[in-house]
Amino acid sequence: MKLLVLAIGGTIDKVYFDALSDYQIGTPAATEILQRVKVNFDFEVRQMISKDSLEMTDADRQEILSVVQDHSGKHVIITHGTDTMVETGQVLNQAAHKTIVIMGAMQPAIMKLTDADFNLGVAVAAVQTLSEGVYLCMNGRIYDVDRVVKNRAEGQFQDLGEGL
């Protein structure tokens, strides 16, 4: 398997800057996570947009779609901010002959109590076993991108219909 990981930005890649008392998008967390756990497949992590997902535009989503369609392999994971990952996933439904898993984190990967490692691990397993299509992977679940919503009050995603 040759896995392409597109790092779009979002909380998973945020780092804290003391001088600003603010979080900003840093380098892709997926690189460090995959190297640390010593995965035994080929992967490429490519940083693309580096935005909070609330700042993403339709043009950004078209750019992501283009990169996914141009990738010679079948397997793609997209690390993405949680606020608009569903919208990006719906655009990616146009990509043919790919298995695409979109994931993120509620806490930055650099934090001790992050869900980033867990979510990426589930996404890696999912992208290898699911049929072609676009999926969202969060909170230990795999969702059809067309049947999921973020529940901000609960801090998790929820299925709108039959689960996978």
Give the secondary structure arrangement, pairings included.
Layout: E1 2-9, E2 14-17, E3 22-25, H1 29-36, E4 42-51, H2 58-70, E5 75-79, H3 85-92, E6 99-103, H4 116-129, E7 133-138, E8 141-144, E9 148-151, E10 156-159
Parallel strand pairs: 1-4, 1-5, 5-6, 6-7
Antiparallel strand pairs: 2-3, 7-8, 9-10
What is the structure about, briefly put?
It is built from four helices and ten strands, in the order βββαβαβαβαββββ. By secondary structure, the protein is α/β, with parallel strands linked by helices. The longest helix has 14 residues.
Describe what this molecule looks like in 3D.
Strand 6 (99-103), helix 4 (116-129) and strand 7 (133-138) form a beta-alpha-beta unit. With 164 residues, the chain is of the alpha/beta class. It contains four helices and ten strands, in the order E-E-E-H-E-H-E-H-E-H-E-E-E-E. The model has no long low-confidence stretch (mean pLDDT 90). Strands 4-1-5-6-7-8 form a six-stranded mixed β-sheet, with helices on both faces. It is 26% helix and 33% strand.
Structural descriptors:
164 residues, alpha/beta, 6-stranded mixed beta sheet, two-stranded antiparallel sheet, globular
Number of E-type strands: 10
Largest sheet strand order: 4-1-5-6-7-8
* Dominant shape: globular
Number of helices: 4
Share of helix among residues? 25-40%
The computed structural class is alpha/beta
The end-to-end distance, rounded to whole angstroms, is 23 Å
The biggest beta sheet reads:
6 strands, mixed
